[in-house]
Write a structure and sequence with these properties.
Chain lengths: 253, 253
């Protein structure tokens, strides 16, 4: 990606389809013939209890886990997904020896790209947008958990990838920080194809355009629930609250 | 109090030593008192300095070579799978042979000069450095490597930018151990065969019943070991400011 692409430039929307997904663990299938479509420029939430295989599914899409045959992961334009996804995990994964700014610029450093003034200016701009202006030279250790995840968000945005995969990125944070950060992420990630894996129904309903429930053994992905209105929705939105009951019921099935 | 405490300890130890000499009435050539040793120090200052210089050179060169070789080996072991398969057993077996047993051979091969002592110190330093750094390189936080992969980093780039810096604290503990054992290597080498160095001086003094001189040489050697450790520790702390200091074992006063 070019260095002079601005932070506001969102790459063209890209849908992703997972079909015939299969995962066996110790001989028994965790899921089989599972399919999931990530709509372009929308946040798809995958909600489910722990151990159901959501993280592995996400890692297959990310190219971090070898998909078990006959699983296929295809991008809407038919080209490979590698190099077009950004990954955000539950831990912030900030490198303790780099400054906040250095962490945001990690992708460029790893790919051996020159640290041009444009690139640095962009990283500073992103840090300002996540509310961390002035903290560029601090080490991650001096930040709070929420601030660290904000840096991780800036680092994710810095990659300009059309697909963003998030694995419970806010689950280690306290409730109010999680709420704020979720809203911020929804705002900044608008226009990208996002898969958000979570076990928090409220979070899924606030941030997702489409919410799928993944349950059962072997696991299946249920039909999408589409909460009305654009995310991020208010946590006390009556629709959100009504759907939360529905989701909990589906989760418990 | 911080500086006073070790001084008090030292004074008590010296007093106990002197008391032991008085109480037992041991002759000078078995156990000299602290005053006798101090006199030996003064009388043989030139001799001690000359031999200390040669031992110090051996220690420093051995430390440098051992750390350099250990670093190269650890990186090789961590990054090349076949190197790991072929060299790991060799490394372990080589450690099963007591390094002291090799000293006569090294003197035979490399002569009575400094080379055999430097080789001895290098050998003794090599293993702690290699194993510490290799261990550190193997224990990189897997999430960081996942992140690097999604960012399109090559294996070499991930090694240089993530695995190596992440392994530096482990490497630092290896170097600290190395700094503490380096003098042993040099002195063992000198004992087996040499014409200079503190080890040589100690043997020589021992044979001539100059036990006070032997003690003086021993003190110089001890001072080297402590100074080397302190300097190494300080340098490593400065070089790795992001490593949290653990004071778990320090009592709170």
């Amino acid at each position: 990606m070019d260095a002079f692409v601005q932070a506001d430039d969102v790459p063209p929307p890209l849908p992703v389809t997972i079909a015939s997904a299969r995962l066996t663990y110790g001989g028994t299938p965790l899921f089989e013939d599972l399919s999931l479509r990530l709509e372009p420029a929308a946040v798809t939430c995958l909600l489910g209890p722990s151990g159901v295989g959501k993280t592995t599914l996400l890692r297959m899409i990310a190219g971090l886990a070898e998909p078990e045959p006959p699983t296929t992961v295809t991008a809407g334009d038919g080209r490979p997904l590698a190099g077009r996804i950004a990954y955000m995990a539950q831990q912030d994964l900030l490198l303790p020896w780099l400054s906040v700014l250095g962490n945001v610029l990690l992708g460029a450093r790893l790919r051996g790209e020159r640290r041009t003034p444009t690139l640095v200016a962009e990283a500073r701009g992103l840090l300002a947008r996540v509310g961390l202006a002035g903290r560029e030279d601090d080490r991650p250790a001096s930040l709070s958990g929420g601030q660290r995840q904000r840096v991780a968000l800036a680092r994710t945005l810095m990659e300009h990838r059309p697909v963003v995969l998030m694995d419970e990125p806010f689950s280690a944070l306290d409730a109010i920080t999680r709420l704020r950060l979720g809203g911020l992420a929804a705002e900044l990630l608008a226009g990208r194809t996002v898969l958000l894996v979570t076990h928090d129904p409220l979070e899924a309903l606030r941030l997702g355009h489409r919410v799928h429930v993944m349950t059962g053994f072997p696991a299946t992905v249920g039909p999408a629930l589409e909460p009305p209105g654009p995310p991020p929705r208010a946590p006390d939105d009556p629709d959100v609250l009504a759907l939360q009951g529905e989701l909990l019921r589906r989760l418990a099935e | 109090m911080k500086f006073l405490r070790p001084l008090v300890t030292l004074a008590v130890l010296l007093a106990a030593w002197q008391a032991l000499v008085w109480a037992t009435g041991l002759p000078r050539y078995i156990l000299p008192g602290p005053l006798a040793v101090a006199t030996a120090f003064q009388r043989n200052a030139g001799l001690l300095t000359q031999h200390a210089a040669s031992t110090l050179t051996e220690i420093l060169l051995g430390l440098f070579l051992g750390v350099a070789l250990g670093t190269v080996s650890a990186i090789l072991l961590a990054s090349v799978r076949s190197a790991r398969r072929w060299l790991m057993p060799l490394l372990v077996v080589s450690q099963a042979i007591p390094v002291f047993a090799l000293a006569p051979l090294l003197v035979l091969w490399l002569g009575y000069g400094m080379a055999s002592k430097i080789a001895m110190a290098t050998l003794i330093i090599y293993f702690p450095v290699t194993s510490a750094l290799f261990d550190g390189l193997r224990r990189t936080e897997p999430g960081w490597l996942d992140l690097a992969r999604t960012m399109g980093a090559s294996g070499a780039s991930a090694l240089w930018h993530i695995r190596l810096p992440a392994a530096l604290p482990a490497f630092a503990s290896g170097v600290r151990v190395a700094a503490a054992v380096a003098p042993i290597g040099a002195v063992i080498g000198e004992w087996v065969g040499s014409s200079a160095g503190l080890g040589y001086l100690m043997l020589h003094a021992n044979a001539r019943m100059q036990i006070d001189l032997l003690f003086a040489a021993l003190f110089v050697l001890g001072a080297f070991a402590v100074a080397l450790y302190t300097v190494t520790d300080a340098v490593l702390h400065r070089a790795l400011p992001w490593v949290p200091e653990s004071h778990a074992f320090d009592e709170k006063d």
